[in-house]
Design a protein that fits this description.
The structure is a single chain. This protein is mostly helical. It has one domain. Helix content is 69%, strand content 0%. The chain has 5 helices and no strands.
């Protein structure tokens, strides 16, 4: 549902870049969001990508802290046993941690590609969860 006039080609390009460059991290969507604040279309798409990446970064940091704490406590618990086998929990937790990180990377890639294409076509496409939040932050009407 359009919130304003049909976006110009320049706006479509910048919104597409906000999504496509988000594969490299949150810096490109942040810069595009700050530079193109006057365009509601560009700021909406850039803010969605930015909100996703901030959330993804926080989740990765929490996962890393949990992994390192688990790693440290596991080895501290097995420090007293000299000839003990490596802890089984480490062999279970590390692959799970790696799978979560890889799943997040795949989700990041899929979101970037899908929404870059939609932005290039001039659609006001919402990310799940982050689209309505971006609309609220930018004081745009919700899609009905």
């Amino acid at each position: 549902m359009p919130v304003g006039p049909e976006p110009a080609q320049d706006e479509r390009t910048m919104a597409t870049l906000a999504h496509a460059l988000s594969m490299l991290g949150f810096l490109a969507p942040l810069i595009i969001f700050l530079i193109k604040r006057q365009s509601r279309f560009v700021s909406f798409h850039a803010l969605q990508a930015l909100l996703w990446h901030i959330t993804y970064l926080v989740l990765v940091m929490v996962a890393m802290v949990a992994f390192f704490m688990f790693f440290i406590f596991t080895f501290m618990a097995h420090q007293s046993a000299k000839d003990a086998a490596p802890p089984l929990g480490l062999f279970v937790f590390f692959p799970l941690w790696w799978l979560v990180i890889m799943a997040g990377s795949i989700i990041n890639l899929v979101l970037a590609i899908v929404y870059a294409v939609k932005a290039g076509q001039g659609e006001w496409a919402n990310y799940p969860i982050f689209g309505p939040l971006a609309r609220k932050i930018l004081k745009m009407p919700p899609i009905t």
